[in-house]
Sequence to fold (314 residues):
Amino acid sequence: MMKDKVVIVGAGFVGATSAYALMMSGVAEEIVMIDANHDKAEGEVMDLNHGILFVPSIQIRTGDYSDCKDARLIIITAGSNQKPGESRMDLLKRNASIFEDIISQIKKYITDAIVLVVTNPVDVLTHFTLKISGLPPSRVIGSGTVLDSSRFRFLLSRHCGVDARNVHAYIIGEHGDSEVPVWSLADIAGMPIDKYCMQCGRQCARDEKDKIFEEVKNSAYNIIAKKGATYYAVGLAVRRIAEAILRNENSVLTISTLVDNYYGISDVCISLPVLVNGQGAARLLKIPVNEQELDSLKRSAEKIKEATDQLYSA
Ligand code: NAD
Fold:
């Protein structure tokens, strides 16, 4: 039987924090870290291993691309991160050439693993990975708006004073400036959010929803301006996706996957609620968004597509 082995390519802030979150979850038997800066990978592995006594049994080591052979999950976090004020799209060209290198190595060894792309701009790089790897779409996924949906649920939870686990709401579309909040399907205790608001009776200002969404959308910019990078929450989002895959959970997560005629949207990797299990992206769920949300989703898809096309025509 295949081991629950996870290869993480990129031992920077996001890769190392994802490894840290994963080692604490107990879901993986082995984590292998690869980085172009081998010392960085070694240093992170040493630091993580020194805490191994305090977590469920696991092996953590540095490795090389031949480790992809018997991996169940390959997580790519390598690349540059956003500089203050830089948009995710600006990162594209720099990170695409890094990906060409990495995917050509992975391709030599991969057997059954799922590939999870975290590097930004994640939607375009997921499409790029799919294209150059030749893997089936179910096995190449992006972390997409899993983090953004978590930020959304946290902010709603804090605003409403309700446990985030009882607030269900999704951010779909691009992991970036054109992402879309699905207010029409947001619920608390199974109730549409507007019904909950009527019961709550706080009579919040009309623009409260806009403010909450703006905060979600600008989270990365705000954190990067204050501390230079974001990594804790994304590390936990990566762990959540890894668990859904390694435990074959059929969890609904807003990962980025290739869509084909989703309300007319095709040939773009974009985040939507997807059933995630041991096969990767097992089923894309067609959610009944309203007209305004659908318009925004289509605009978001256009934006990703433009960037994807730009990359291929460069
Ligand atoms: P970082 O600079 O700390 O780490 C990147 C690492 O990649 C470095 O250690 C570098 O040596 C390594 N690397 C570069 N080229 C490589 C190659 N060819 N092969 C192997 N390793 C290579 O950056 P970070 O803060 O960890 O961010 C990594 C990426 O994650 C960025 O693109 C960032 O925007 C993205 N990110 C995504 C999300 C999300 O929700 N999807 C959230 C936060 C950050």
Summary: The chain has a mean pLDDT of 95. Residues 291-313 form the longest helix (23 residues). The pocket of nicotinamide-adenine-dinucleotide is lined by residues 9-15, 35-37, 40, 77-79, 81-82, 95, 98, 101-102, 118-120, 122, 143, 147, 175, 229-231, 234 (CB under 6 Å). The two ends are 43 Å apart (CA to CA).
